[in-house]
Amino acid sequence: MASDAALRSAVVWLAVIIVLVGIFTLSLKKMMITYAFGMVGIAGILLPDWDFFDRDFSRWCYPVTAEERASLLAQRSGLLKRYRIYPMRVIIYATIYSFGLYKWWTFISS
Prior knowledge:
It is a single chain. The chain is an all-alpha fold. The chain has 5 helices and no strands. Helices cover 73% and strands 0% of the residues.
């Protein structure tokens, strides 16, 4: 249940950020935008079933079998057992989240 703990702590930090935005901007609209942006950001990183998406693209139409899940779990070792680092995935996530953060910051600071 490590992913539940990560989701819970991410939502708590998002609540803290929303309260700070509300205190400093006194705008309910900006708080709601921060909530929506934060929930989309959390959902994009923590919620996907990475065992499903770490397979070959041609296998995405079929459910993960018990043998595939067992082999994926056996392959993982080290500190980051849940995620495998793929350079293209990191570049795409960094680009999308950087653009989103930039747009959010320009909206909040206006």
